[in-house]
Amino acid sequence: MAFRLARASSQLARRAARGRYGDPRPWLLGSAPPVLLVSSPAAAVGGRRGFCSVRRFTAGDSSAAAAAAVSEDDETENGFTDGDQVLDFPGGKVSFEAEMNFLPESKAERINCYRVLDDDGQTISGSRFQEVSKEMARKMYSNMVTLQIMDTIFYEAQRQGRISFYLTSHGEEAINIASAAALSIEDLVLPQEFANQCFGNKMDYGKGRQMPIHYGSNRLNYFTVSSPIATQLPQAVGAAYSLKMDKKDACAITYFGDGGTSEGDFHAALNFAAVMEAPVIFFCRNNGWAISTPTTEQFRSDGVVVRGQAYGIRGIRVDGNDALAVYSAVHAAREMTITEGRPILVEALTYRVGHHSTSDDSTKYRPVDEIEHWRTARDPISRYRKWVQGNDWWSDAEESELRKTVRQELLQAIQVAERAPKPPVSELFTDVYDQIPSNLHEQEQLLRDTIMKHPADYPTDVPI
Amino acid sequence: MKLDPTVCVLGEDVGHYGGSYKVTKGLAEMFGDLRVLDTPIAENSFTGMGVGAAMKGLRPVVEGMNMGFLLLAYNQISNNCGMLHYTSGGQFKVPLVIRGPGGVGRQLGAEHSQRLESYFQSIPGLQMVACSTPYNAKGLMKAAIRSENPVVLFEHVLLYNLKEKIPNEEYVLCLEEAEMVRPGEHVTILTYSRMRYHVLQAEKTLVNKGYDPEIIDIRSLKPFDLHTIGNSIKKTHRVLIVEECMRTGGIGASLRSAIIDNFWDYLDAPIMCLSSQDVPTPYAGTLEDATVAQPAQIVAAVEQICQ
């Protein structure tokens, strides 16, 4: 061992002189990795596109695949040749060094943040972004305004006791709308459908079974929201796996917050997606707060984007309050997931202007002036508005018209939803399984009997 | 997997290795390593992946290397797998099969000897079946894959070596049906999985002693086949449950309660239940044997019930 080390240092010196190392940082932001450590030489043959790099088996081809997996090249794509003093461990060859060097816990500089519009809504000179048509720009803007008004009105409705719970996205409207706009989704959840879900009435597609804003729609390819944190991440990988099996020209996207990145599912989902080369976009809304826990108490890494590298996932940090930057980043990410068959991590930096939910009062753990600053000076909607109006694509008149119309539409939707009948008691027992089993029939009968015998104890407006 | 391209397998070492008990042997060669997917070690996450893939239209079969490890997947199984069909208002189905070897083996230690049917039986939206013979294993597996509901299929670590001549043709067994193993008149013995074989061993002694036990392998752990079970109780009026679960909160506990609710009037004696004790399964062979119901105890129990 000592002999090898002694030889190594002189060899290392010679090699450095020859310049055979290439770039010591295996991953450069924004460009394809020139050096990729893979777990078997067969991968170099298989290439990155296709089912799996480390391709042991194609269907029905056992003997050829077994042979390919075993062969060892003398010269790998890393440029090492036989006789070089490198360590040959599972996972690929690594050159070694005799000096003991610990990787620093973080880089000296934080990862830069991609931004296109400045605080006054002017495009930054030299910025590159995905062009949007006038129609798309206007649509994005009016959707952001709609979302803002929707949040305000429904939050108030909860305060008035008309719905039990609500959670706003104040301050994050650009993230919501711009990312969706980049994904070729034409429709969003419609106001009436949304109101129906919040009120849990008969017309709710979820049949009144989930709490407010935990909606889902098969029509829109939107999985029903489930409360436990980060469980949707591996599910997104599963959905991407399904798209990959069917060879669809589509990707999956999943959203989560800074807090969600601490869950075990975050770690495993990213790892899986990388190993499986699943076409999924992991979109992290880093808004600084997980209820009352600030990010300084959530993790010690440089935010979330650096974690992608740990799993072998390409990532970008973007200004989440810049609608154009978010739009461009997601647009590019989608291209990459589909054409290159890889997952992408997007970290959007933003600020949670509202409380976590209607059960929270965030003034208890953060300064009011901090909230005010982000609500006004850093508002994504007014910033984007300046850009849209700067292009003569929007006017003050249209602004007040839009706000008036949307407000009316939403108030109307709430009134309709509130007055609509609740789902009948029979819907308590359906969809637990595909067919109602006998024990649930019995339980339903028991419940009906009880209601019939004691009608005064049950609400009259719930049909049986 | 040959009949339906949406059926796929996910789990640790299920690919070229063929699975910890070789259940998926040869499948990766036949169907490729995407359809028979070796996952990293993260049960909660590959179960979650299975849920997501199922919601998108695949029919994944998720393997827990040992059922006990699926405790890590409890979050996804309870909060998502069992619930999403309901909470989405029926918009999304989860036709997932979760399977794996479980039960008390030969000195595998406490963590590898879990009986997960105890822990899962409360979860709404799940169906649970336990296979016990090569014949019913094939039929129940096919039924589970075809089912639109999430099904947990319990296999047993000690039963993989059973050999039996079974039909080559396609056959599908009913997930909700119990299996009449031996008709009889004196006592109804309800059992499942490995305990079936302890009961069958006890049967030999019992028959020699002049007893005529009716032996039913309940197979369907959730829901119980109360039709078959009820008919038997109406005939024999005496019930002995032999299970591998622990005394507290096991399948036996629920089964007793269901029988009392439905067939109280037909009972001539209190229901007896032989279960494992409420202890982690010890490693030492003699101690391990002492925690599960043995044939001698089964014989004694029948004698006591039939007094």
Structure description:
The complex is a heterodimer of chains A (464) and B (307). Chain A is 40% helix and 8% strand. Chain A contains 14 helices and 8 strands. The longest helix of chain A is centred in the first third of the chain and has 26 residues. In chain A, the strands form 3 sheets. In chain A, strands 3-4-8-7 form a 4-stranded parallel β-sheet, with helices on both faces. Chain A has a two-stranded antiparallel ribbon with strand order 1-2. A two-stranded antiparallel sheet of chain A has the order 5-6. Chain A has 464 residues and is α/β, with parallel strands linked by helices. The N terminus of chain A is likely disordered. In chain A, a hairpin with a 2-residue loop joins strand 1 and strand 2. Chain B has 307 residues and is of the alpha/beta class. Chain B contains 11 helices and 12 strands. In chain B, the strands form 2 sheets. Chain B has a 7-stranded mixed β-sheet with strand order 2-1-3-4-6-5-10, with helices on both faces. In chain B, strand 8, helix 7 and strand 9 form a beta-alpha-beta unit. The N and C termini of chain B lie far apart (52 Å). In chain B, 58% of the residues are buried. The mean pLDDT of chain B is 94. Classes of the chains: A alpha/beta (464), B alpha/beta (307). Chains A and B meet through helix 7 and helix 8 of A and helix 1, helix 2, helix 3 and helix 4 of B. Chain A: It is found in: Mitochondrion matrix.
